[in-house]
Write a sequence for this structure.
């Protein structure tokens, strides 16, 4: 290709820019308000957190570069960090997949019966309100630690236990209670996506399946419904695991911050503790970066597993 | 003149039609009915507790359903606190104001951004779409510290701006809207352009009327995010008067106290009811919009 003449190219670039703006400018203007906020509060902060994690920063003095010291402290010296990592993984790997499975399963059941409106509204109810309100409700009624608590009363009158269990301070019961309350509210956005998606599978696929020998509802679900809803599987599984990694409101409201012996503290709570109570922003940023890597890594894994092959 | 084309009708029939109901297996009801009862139990019991007079609240074991309903708890919550430094109605106002502004502006700028991403394919659209999906793949709590630094350097700590502006960048809204908009037939937009319609006119008169289900969806999701949100308020709010409703309920309900239990349930119910109403109103629209929301990967 001959590219000998350079002068026309320069003028071309000039008019090119004007032409480019004429062609696309209005659209970039439309996008600007949201993009500016997205860049300022989502895209750049990921980079900023990574940068801050390499500094000592207490908000009073300017950040001072200290290399990987925060990470060394975090992984070598911070025993509580390990407790929170263990709690987070335990909590996320139970409530993430289970929440995902339950919302699919119940949407699938609702899809097959009459009264879909009633059942979908009813099952979505716990996810409508704030996690704090739901946790407060459970704390004040079901899981109250004295014999007046409903669950204690039930178990005592059935003769299963003699003494009331202090659900939200007992090391053995705190995590299960947090998981139960979380699962109670797990019919969330993912559930709505499933309710919608199950109706969108083209009817002729099912008819074709019948001809090909699909007999039971389970076979229908496994061979026809799920394969045609791979994009929804990927989206809702990511939403579910990410929500599990980020959740701290239910833990905090049920058991306090920090919870007794850090029994249900998550990585987010550890980060908030260092950031907004001790004002060690550099160290807290390192915790945030670890949380980012863990949850982003899990999401990428789901992308690998559930990507549509087309 | 708004143009609504019937291109969605085909999908509507598929997504909401009752064609899938053949023989209903009764067994399913044995699973669904108990589950539905379990799910609405908190709301039912919360309502009942909120309406109970003090002697019924002290009754042990408690009745599931209130015997002599009274509005005393609501009165105590709203009127008895009106003389205190920060009346409870202030928290309701804070949450309501933040929610209204966030829903209106969020839907507007989210739709404005989604249209060029979905239909025009401006240079850079692929990168932006990838960033939006990437932003779904980690919890927003990761961003808390840099967001706080930006908010505080803009002197927005303890203002409504701090509770509204960062949340407007929620990527899920634009994600849902982009996917829905990409179903609008391009020929429709091109025809309008041939007729001399400007880009803004196409956006307002053709795109917007055709994405009502998606608008209902992101309006509901924004409403829910804002009305139920406690994280940002936890970080950005310093003064008592700026606290939001969920945060006020968290404080009110931190201790289990027999004297306040009815009041806490009343406050919880006031927080619960708007979500319930708005969900019931927007449900069918949402199910249309979300039917084709997914990630191909």
């Amino acid at each position: 290709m001959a590219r000998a003449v350079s002068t026309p190219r320069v003028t071309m670039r000039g008019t090119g820019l004007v032409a480019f703006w004429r062609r696309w400018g209005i659209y970039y203007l439309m996008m600007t308000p949201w993009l500016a906020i997205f860049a300022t509060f989502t895209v750049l902060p990921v980079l900023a957190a990574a940068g801050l994690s390499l500094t000592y920063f207490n908000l009073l003095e300017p950040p001072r570069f200290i290399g990987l010291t925060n990470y060394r402290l975090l992984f070598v010296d911070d025993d509580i960090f390990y407790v929170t990592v263990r709690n987070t993984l335990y909590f996320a790997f139970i409530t993430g997949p289970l929440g995902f499975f339950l919302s699919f399963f119940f949407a699938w059941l609702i899809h097959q019966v009459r009264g879909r409106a009633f059942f979908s509204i009813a099952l979505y109810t716990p996810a409508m309100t704030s996690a704090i309100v739901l946790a407060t409700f459970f704390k004040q009624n079901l899981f109250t630690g004295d014999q007046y608590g409903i669950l204690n009363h039930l178990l005592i009158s059935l003769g299963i236990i003699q003494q009331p269990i202090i659900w939200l301070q007992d090391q053995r019961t705190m995590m299960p209670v947090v998981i139960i309350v979380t699962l109670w509210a797990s019919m969330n956005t993912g559930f709505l996506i499933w309710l919608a998606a199950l109706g969108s599978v083209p009817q002729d696929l099912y008819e074709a399946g019948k001809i090909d020998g699909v007999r039971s509802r389970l076979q229908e679900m496994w061979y026809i419904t799920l394969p045609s809803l791979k994009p929804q599987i990927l989206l809702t599984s990511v939403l579910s695991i990410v929500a599990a990694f980020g959740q701290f409101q239910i833990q905090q409201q049920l058991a306090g911050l920090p919870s007794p012996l850090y029994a249900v503290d998550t990585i987010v709570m550890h980060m908030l503790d260092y950031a907004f109570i001790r004002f060690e922003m550099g160290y807290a940023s390192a915790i945030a970066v670890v949380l980012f890597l863990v949850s982003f890594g899990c999401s990428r894994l789901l992308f690998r597993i559930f990507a549509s092959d087309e | 003149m708004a143009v609504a084309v019937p291109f969605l009708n085909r999908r509507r029939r598929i997504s909401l039609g009752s064609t899938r109901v053949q023989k209903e297996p009764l067994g399913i009801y044995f699973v669904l009915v108990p589950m539905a009862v379990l799910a609405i139990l908190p709301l039912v019991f919360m309502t009942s507790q909120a309406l109970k007079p003090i002697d019924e609240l002290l009754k042990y074991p408690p009745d599931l359903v209130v015997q002599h309903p009274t509005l005393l708890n609501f009165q105590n919550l709203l009127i008895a606190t009106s003389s205190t430094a920060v009346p409870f109605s202030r928290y309701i106002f804070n949450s309501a104001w933040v929610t209204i502004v966030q829903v209106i502006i969020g839907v507007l700028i989210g739709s404005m951004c989604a249209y060029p991403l979905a239909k025009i394919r401006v240079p850079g659209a692929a990168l932006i779409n990838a960033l939006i999906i990437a932003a779904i793949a980690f919890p927003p709590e990761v961003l808390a510290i840099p967001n706080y630094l930006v908010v505080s350097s803009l002197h927005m700590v303890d203002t409504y701006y701090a509770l509204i502006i960062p949340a407007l960048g929620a990527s899920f809204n634009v994600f849902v809207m982009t996917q829905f908009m990409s179903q609008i037939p391009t020929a429709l937009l091109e025809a309008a352009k041939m007729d001399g319609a400007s880009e803004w006119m196409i956006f307002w008169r053709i795109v917007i009327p055709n994405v009502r289900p998606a608008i209902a969806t992101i309006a509901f999701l924004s409403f829910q995010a804002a009305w139920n949100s406690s994280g940002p308020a936890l970080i950005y709010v310093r003064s008592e008067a700026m606290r939001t409703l969920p945060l006020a309920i968290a404080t009110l309900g931190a201790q289990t106290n027999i004297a306040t239990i009815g009041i806490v349930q009343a406050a919880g119910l006031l927080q619960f009811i708007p979500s319930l109403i708005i969900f019931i109103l927007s449900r069918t629209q949402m199910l249309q919009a979300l039917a084709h929301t997914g990630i191909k990967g």
Remarks:
- Chain A touches chain B through 108 residues (CB under 8 Å).
- The CA atoms of residues 132 and 251 of chain A lie 9 Å apart.
- The first helix of chain A runs from residue 7 to 52.
